[in-house]
Structure formats: C-alpha cells, structure tokens
Records
---
Amino acid sequence: MTELPISFDLIADRNAAHREALEDDYAALGRKLARAGIDIDAVKAKVAGFSVAVPSWGAGRGGTRFAKFPIPGEPTNIHEKLEDCAVIQQLGRTTPRVSPHFPWDKVSDYKALREEAAALGLGFDAVNSNTFQDQPGQAHTYANGSLAAQDAATRQQAVDHNIECIEIGRQLGSTDLTVWVGDGTNFPGQQDLGRSLDRYLEAAAKIYAALPDDWRMLLEHKMFEPAFYSTVISDWGSSILAAQELGPKAKCLVDLGHHAPNVNIEQIVARLHRFGKLGGFHFNDSKYGDDDLDSGSINPHQLFLVFNELAEAELNPRDGFNPSYMIDQSHNVTDPIESMLSSAETITQCYAKAALVDRAALHAAQEANDTMMAFQALRRAYNTDVAPILAMARMEAGGAIDALEAYRLSQYRSRKAQERKAVGLGAGIV
Ligand code: AFD
Ligand code: MN
Ligand code: MN
C-alpha cells in the first residue's frame, strides 16, 4: 500500500487523548443497552460491517445554478478525487468505495486506476453514465433528450455511452450501472408523454442486454430538473414499471432528494422491497427540492425511518436483497471531505439506531393495534445516542475517534492548496 494521506501518528496521538472518555461513554451506553437486552458489542460488530460509497463528483465543491465558489486545494481530476476519498475512508472507516461518473472520470488506463485506488485503500462502486450534458466533439446533442430522444442516432449514442460505462466498470471491479437521465419536457405538448417512455424503454433494453450476468442496472428516478414540466422516469412508479419490463437485473435506485416534498420515502422503500426491486440509495437531504444537502442535516428522523424499513427488509429478504448505499450530495458551502465524513457518520448512526429497535416489541404492538407502544419502540431507538458505538468501531478499524478534529489538524486541504492547480469559476450543480 502506498502512503495514506493522513499521518498515522496524528491519528494515534489524538485517539490516545480521546480514548479514556470514549471507553467511559461506551461502557455507560453498554450498561443502558444491556438493561434492554441489547449486547452493545453485537451492535458495534454490525456497525463495523456497514459501509456507504462516496461519489467521485462529491469530492469537488458543488455549486448552484447561479455560481460555484471553489476552495483552494479542491481536486480537479479523478486521481486527486481518489486521494480525497482516501482521507474520508482513512479517518471515518465507513466509505471504502468510490462511485465514478463518466465521462468526467475518464482515464486511458483503468487497470492502473483500479490499482491506484487499491493502494489508497479504496475500491469502486456503481458506475454512473452521463447523458444529461453534451461533451466536446459529441456527434449528437442531448438537448432534446438521450435515451428517450426522438432522434434514433441520439438514442443509440446514449446507449453506446452506457455500454462503454459497463466496459469501464468491468475493469474497475464494479457490478452496478446507475442510469439517471435528464430527459423530459418544459412545455405541455412538447413531447408525447407515452411515446417518450416507449423510446426510453426500447433504448434501456439495449443497455440491459449488454449487462454481464452478475451486474445490475439501477434506474434512478427524479421528479423534475432539468426538465420542469415532465420527466420521463419521474417517480418510483415509472421506475418500478421500467425495471419490471427490463428484467430481474434492473432495480430501482432511490435518491432521497428526488421526490415531491413530504412524500413518505420510507413507504416507497417498503414498496420497492415488496416487489424485489429495491436496488440502492443516493443519500442526501433536502428542504425544498433536489437540494443535495448533507444527509440528515434537515430531516434525520426520515433517514432513520428509511433504515428502519431496511432492517425490516433484512428480516424478510426477497430476490437477493442487497441494496447499494451511496452518498450523492452537492457541497456548496463546506469542505467536501468534512461534509462526507459528517454525512457518512449520520448515515451510519441511522443504521445503528434502526438496529436497536426492539423488533419483537414493535411487531407485538402492531399485532395488538397498540399504536403508542409501536411508536415508542421506534422512538426509544431513535432517541439513543449511538455516537460511542460508531467512534469505538472507527477507532478499532484504525480511524479517528474525532474524525473532523484529526482532519483539521492534518492541514490536508492547505497542503493540497500548495500542490493542486486552482479550479475555475463558473456555475454547475456538480
Ligand atoms: C443528479 C442525480 C444523479 C446524477 C447526479 C449528477 O442525482 O445521481 O448522477 O445528479 O450530478 O441529480
Ligand atoms: Mn442521485
Ligand atoms: Mn439529484
């Protein structure tokens, strides 16, 4: 393994300073959980086995439609992004995989890229295609859509790009292709709502046919943006219908920000699971739309309820239940490394809290129509501060008890500001 970006001595020094307090907190929580019949070490073992992938594009500062405000030391290519993702994994120990996006992360040698990542302690997660932007020299524009475009040559170009992503993913060790298209309309009448879905299904079937046996195609729905009147795969209904039509390797991916406000996302999760079509998640949070804010920063209770459904799903697995977990956020005003450290911790906390739910008590209360006790079964778990469990698991895996503190002390970003070329200004959601 090449040298990891953060000094082991720094992590060890800070952990030595925090260790006694952590052991104290862990023991106290262990006694509290033991009174409820829960073995804290068993929960810690589950937490240690949990992981969530980080998006390569999340390593750069995001922006809004209005502007992007880069920070010194921001990564500008996949190599620098991997290095930043290695920091997140080294300190936090829950993000061992990176999800790349093409053509943004294109290189000439993917075998070498895979080795480079492995040397940094990283692997690759789902590959993401991009048919929502035109690239320099591209033959056909996506201005009027990609997989659902009226123009057959444009559709074929989008299909070919997705197949190229599968080929790249094979070399990187991925087994999932995530497909999100921006296809849709801004005006009533602009496109036929039925025929555009037909075109999408026909093109998606060509991609599906190119999937290796052990691969999945994850369909990501989104209600609006960039299209503001209609979107082809707008909701979980369109997504599951498309996935059912395509075949068993097609599953649905739930991006938490891609729904109408106040939609019951945990119920969507339960529905998709019921029909064996829950493929994965893009975690983020939102207040108004697809805000791509940090996971759990606005509504951590919703995130807990999603994980509660996943814990129920684990007890009743259907069709090889194995959802992929990924962060998909736009870090507009924070250091992306800090946001992803903090978000991965929040996501893992929700996973741990869901593991604390007394399922027997919950199910008994549900059977007895005892609404208050059913609710309290969830509430007790949600109210438990699981931070010592995560910190202990992190320390035992070689990470930092206080990951943000270690990151700040390392001065990683200012060191990178000396080495890396500056990012240009401009707007853009990515
Ligand atoms: C989009 C979707 C999708 C896509 C990403 C690109 O969430 O995951 O790959 O943003 O930045 O809104
Ligand atoms: Mn997404
Ligand atoms: Mn999004």
Note: The chain has 15 helices and twelve strands.
---
Amino acid sequence: MSEYDPVDPPVALTVAGSDSGGGAGVQADLTAMRAHGVFGASVVTATTAQNTRGVEDVNPLPADHVASQYAAVADDFDVAAVKTGMLATAEVVETVTELVADFNAPLVVDPVMVAATGDRLLSPAAEDAYEDLVAAATLVTPNVDEAAVLTGNPVETPADAEAAGRELVALGADAALVKGGHLSEGAVGEDVVVDTLVRAEGDSESGGPTVDRFETPRIDTDATHGSGCALSSAIAARLARGESVRGAVDVAVEEMTEAVRRGYDVGEGPGAVNPTV
Ligand code: PLP
C-alpha cells in the first residue's frame, strides 16, 4: 500500500454566482484558485441559466441560505482570503457585508453588476448597498462601468480611472484596481489595456495614495467572458498565499493576457477565458 501524501494548500473562498455555461462565476473562480495553488471553497449566491451566448435566467438564493453556506465553510476551514463576485440582490450584499465584518484576512470585492452580454447580474436596488462592502475591502476590482456606478462619475479615460480609484479608497477600501478592458481610447492608444491600481498605503513623495498603472497588450477577441472572475480569484489566491496586493495584482494582470489569448473556443457564442494558463 502506498503512503498517503496529501498537500496542504491555503484555502480561499469565493462568494459568487454559478454560471451553468462554466466560463464565469464560481466555476471560473474555483478553476483560477486551483491554478494559483490554493484550495477553493464556494458560497453560491445565485444560479444562472446561461451559455456562451447569454444569460437566460437568474435565480438569486435566499440570503439566509447564503449565510448558512458561509457558516459551514467558516466553521471548518481556516479561510485565508475571501473573494466576492455576483451577489445578485441588496439582501445578499448586506448579508455578505455582515458576514465578512469579523473576517481578519484579505477580502477582494469584484462588484459584478452586468455581464458582457449586457444582462443584469445585480438588482439596481443593490447598487447603493455596495458602499459598506467596498469600505471593508482589501481590494475592490471594478471595470470602468462598475467604477462609474460606485463613484457616481463617468469613467472614460485613464485619468478618470485613477480618479475613481482614489474615490473608492477614500470610501474606505485599502486599494482599488480599476480595470481598463472596456476603455477603448486613452492617451496610450487602443492597443493596450491600462489597469490602474490605487492603494491607500501612502506615497512618500506626495503623501497621498500610491498609484500604479499596468499596461498589457489588448487581444483582439470578444471571448473575455470570465475575465473579471478569473482575475479577482487569481488575486485572492495570491493574497491567501501571503503575497502583497501590489505583487498579486502585478502577476494576475500579466497572466490575464495569456488567459484571454489562449481562451476556450467552446459553445456557439464567443467562448471564455482560460484561467489555467
Ligand atoms: N458571475 C456570474 C455568475 C456571471 O454569469 C458573470 C458573467 O456572465 C460574471 C460573474 C461576470 O463575468 P466576468 O468575469 O466576465 O466579469
């Protein structure tokens, strides 16, 4: 008989929606976490009936069931990082905000609002409820549309993205990564994606927050389904392994180019990113 020889990785938790098409949501999160050397547990907030063409149906789960899933995980595992994705309703946003209030490890908040296909994944009433969850975040990772909703200002240029990041930090987040994948124009042109990281951690010269910009090549494809989920989960996994926010973001942003370039050409729609590359 061979010796039992288990591995003992850090545990991260995703609190997010299920994508029956497999490309985004909990399915992408757990894949990304495992690819980054972390065991992933999951609290499902909603199930969606969707495929690569779009979302057919959304079924938010009751907030008390979200809470009981969270309690089951927290009761058993030493959770080293939490990532939140699609939270669907104001009740779930509020419940999750209460649940993570006692959590003493990194919290990555991906404020998922609308799918790339334009389908809503968050009820409009829940947008205001996000303020307290953002304030509790180690890192909040909005795309430009979500950053605009959270700050109340349009985000159309890299300068707007930096201003939005500063605003989210002023709201209480330790750091904000404003993802520029949806910005088509900017001082730096159309061939690059500019992601802006603002950290509350002081800049010794200016005395204000620290700003870093990450520029990566833009890949010419519509198959970016799951990119936000995979990115925020890769960052959460790296934080669970003890990396810094700056270090985790740097690696995860760099790898996302490859995850898009080597995406999965599955289904009749545009496919999905590949969180395992
Ligand atoms: N979560 C779920 C359950 C989804 O279905 C989607 C998109 O359809 C998202 C999150 C957001 O996906 P993305 O990573 O493309 O932002």
Note: The beta strands are 11-19, 39-51, 54-60, 79-84, 107-109, 139-140, 175-178, 192-202, 209-217.
